[in-house]
Amino acid sequence: MKKRIAMFLCVALAAMILSACATTETTQKPYKLSQQGKVIWNDEFEFSPPPPGWKLIQVEVGGEFGFGFLRADPGQFPSQSMFVYDEEPFGCSTVLGERGEEFFKRYLWTTAMVADMKILEEKKVNLLGGEGVAMVAEAKDPVKKEKVKSKVVFGKRGDRVVAFYLTQWRPTDGTYDPSAFEVFDNFWGSFRYLKKSFYQTLVEDP
Amino acid sequence: MEGHQRNLPLYDRFNARVVGVSVDDVITLKYWAKSLDLTFPILSNVTGFLGASFGVAPSPEIKGFPVFSRKTVIIDKKGIIRYAKDGSPDFKDILLFLKKMHKEGGKP
């Protein structure tokens, strides 16, 4: 065994990365509805569907999240709400609270809302049959006169951290819509895995 | 790069090591790596000769400056390139390839 390990001790993986762009595209239906009215996503996930008005969004390769739903909200730009399931949330820590801090540092940056970001709430929740952490943050951009409120729920799938997050954008004088947060809570609260993840299979199968 | 950082325990399991290469200068990379909490080496190659050596396509966006597109290269212990793909890293593909290499290494 030691010889086997030594044989590839020198294997090097070089990644040359200078620029990146995520491509967001809507694809042909990767889901079906169960008799109970749940969405079966790629035979891997099960969850309650959002009500009408939420449009499916999906990243195919190298994106920032797996799939989710987007809704245009009443009011001036940038009034909209989006929630997603993400198996590769920003950050690297496997400690849920720490991952949350890493996540918000990166995620709100990608939403172009770096100014005045505050974590408003952090609490433990039951997620996916285990322990999870729910965090709510808000950021405001006084130059663009926009604001964003985000709720993120972190949990574990095997050894890896996964996340569900809702982001709601508004003009600075706009009002957040709590109904979107209720839809989001129903989404992650109903979420179930139907089979092992790629990473679980990778390390468990010979 | 965060994806590689998250996968370090899996790379370790398959006896692989990851090295990043960039044409940015050392100071820029130092702070960039710190901002992402990266713990693996990032090499500064300001002339871009490493990119050229590995066949990384120059970026069409900035002419006359050594800026390269993304490429992932896996080199075995003998220095032989076993895997090379352009574009954003496909982490699942990379991990499956490393697992396969690791298995092959165990055969007599």
Structure description:
The complex is a heterodimer of chains A (206) and B (108). In chain A, 20% of the residues lie in helices and 39% in strands. By secondary structure, chain A is an alpha+beta fold. Chain A has a single domain (25-204), classed as Jelly Rolls (Sandwich). In chain A, strand 10 (146-157) and strand 11 form a beta hairpin. Chain B has a single domain, classed as Glutaredoxin. In chain B, 39% of the residues lie in helices and 19% in strands. Chain B has a two-stranded parallel ribbon. A two-stranded antiparallel sheet of chain B has the order 3-4.
List the helices and strands and how they pair.
The complex is a heterodimer of chains A (206) and B (108).
Chain A: H1 2-7, E1 11-16, E2 31-33, E3 39-41, E4 45-47, E5 55-58, E6 67-72, E7 80-86, H2 96-110, E8 118-127, E9 130-141, E10 146-157, E11 160-171, H3 178-190, E12 192-193, H4 198-204
Antiparallel strand pairs in A: 2-3, 3-4, 4-12, 5-6, 6-7, 7-11, 8-9, 9-10, 10-11
Chain B: H1 2-6, H2 8-13, E1 16-22, H3 26-35, E2 42-44, H4 49-53, E3 71-75, E4 81-86, H5 91-106
Parallel strand pairs in B: 1-2
Antiparallel strand pairs in B: 3-4
Shape designation of chain A: globular
Number of distinct beta strands of chain B:
4
Q: What is the CATH domain class of chain A?
A: Mainly Beta
Instruction: Give the helix level of chain A as a range of percent.
Output: 10-25%
What is the total domain count of chain B?
1
β-strand percent of chain B reads: 15-25%
Instruction: Give the uncertain stretches of chain B in residue-range form.
Output: none
- Write down the Rg of chain B: 15 Å
Quote the beta fraction of chain A: 35-45%
What's the pLDDT, averaged over the residues of chain B? 86
Question: Helical region count of chain B?
Answer: 5
Characterize the quaternary organization of these chains: heterodimer
Predict the CATH topology of chain B.
Glutaredoxin
> Most extensive interface, residues per chain?
A-B, 31 and 53 residues
At the first level of CATH, what is the class of chain B?
A: Alpha Beta
CATH hierarchy: architecture of chain A: Sandwich
Distance between the termini of chain A: 14 Å
